[in-house]
Amino acid sequence: MRRPTIILVCLFVLGTFFASAAAFDRVREEAANRLMSRALKLFQQGKKEEGLAIMRQVKERYPNTSSMLLVSFFLGAEAKAAGAPQPTRHGWAREQIKNICGALKAYYRDTGAWPTEKQGLAALLAVPAGVEGWKGPYMEGKEPPRDPWGNHFAYYRPGAKGEFDVSSRGADGVMGGAGEDADVHSWEVEGCKAP
User: Fold this and answer.
1) Which of 31, 164, 176, 186 has the most CB atoms in a 10 Å sphere around its CB?
2) Among the CATH numbers 3.40.50.170, 3.40.50.720, 3.40.50.11270, 3.30.700.10, which is that of 89-188?
3) Model's pTM, two decimal places?
């Protein structure tokens, strides 16, 4: 067999494979859409539990279909209505601080030092002057992240309880407070201690 013929056969086989994969995806999408239509009809008839059961089936059987957006919305709304615990701003601040701590540790591994207080968290996004070994950016974005209330995270080096401290000052943006105004500190976040 000549070389161009082999290439054509390979291209034909690959084309057939991708065409059948696309057809399979269409079949899965259509099946998920049929189940979603059935679930929505059950909701309209007031049969909420049956509709939710079908949506859970869609979630399990067809996780990578466009219907998942609608399923996620309905199941999330149902969980909220049922009183399931919802993430709080303080919980989100802890997650953000945990991510910042991971980025600071990566910065330290690469450079052998922590960012100075003057460099701040911006050192995780752009190489500071005179720093060698920087392999970042260590976080996404053009500026350091803000806490769930839109305030800048506070970065202290050295920290009161370690090599560094990262804090969210709560809703009021001022140190101290209770309730929504309560602070979240890196030393309170699991896995955030400097090595």
Assistant:
1) 186
2) 3.30.700.10
3) 0.56
